[in-house]
Fold:
Amino acid sequence: MDILHSFHDNTPDLSAAEIARRLDLPLSTAHRLARTLLLGGFLEQDLRTARYRLGPAITELGRISHHQRGLHLAAPEFAELADTTGATPYLALRSGPYAVVVAGGSVIPEIGLRRPLNSTAFGKVLLAWARPAEANLASLPPLPSFTDRTIVDRAELAAELERVRVKAYALNDGESAPGVRTLAVPLLDRLGHARFALALRATPVLITDERLPWFVERTRSCARALEVLLLPPNERRKDF
Structure:
């Protein structure tokens, strides 16, 4: 599993020696584990360079998971939100200390993109309405910085999450990249936990301070529709 996670930084391929260095394994162990994954289709190997890349089994399981979660059903809602607002919608869920984009976006490779929770609007949403076992900020690794606006202090992040809960939406104003403004709202289950975060990304020229409430309302409306599509009936909020 750690070998598969080694490809999370979008590295296209790795040699056995690079896998061994990344995971602090003996080279012989890295070879043996990589060969096992190769036989299962989870890795494939370039016969010319002997380097490994993610295999067809990963693609197959990813597509199965995408459909089992019902994410293919969200496409019309994303299209309508994009057409209405002129911004780009994203759906993300939590994977450990990261938020992972699972639907939406304007470019296909953005699906599967991982971002640290502290630097994005959808990451803040997933933290603000986290399950109890995932709510402890002290359990997060060091908070990385991407711009001079990124929140890297845990006390400051805790205060920001409290503001997010009060406002019922999160804002990323140039914290992950300059010139990008993103807002996000939660898709909540019946216990009040964020199963997904729905984000809308544009620039401050489009999502202005004056029009921000309008964008938030459009995003919330879409989120409510997605809760019906993506959550089983017994996990939806009681007001459905």
Q: What stands out?
A: The chain has a mean pLDDT of 90. The two ends are 39 Å apart (CA to CA). Residues 18 and 27 are 9 Å apart (CA to CA).
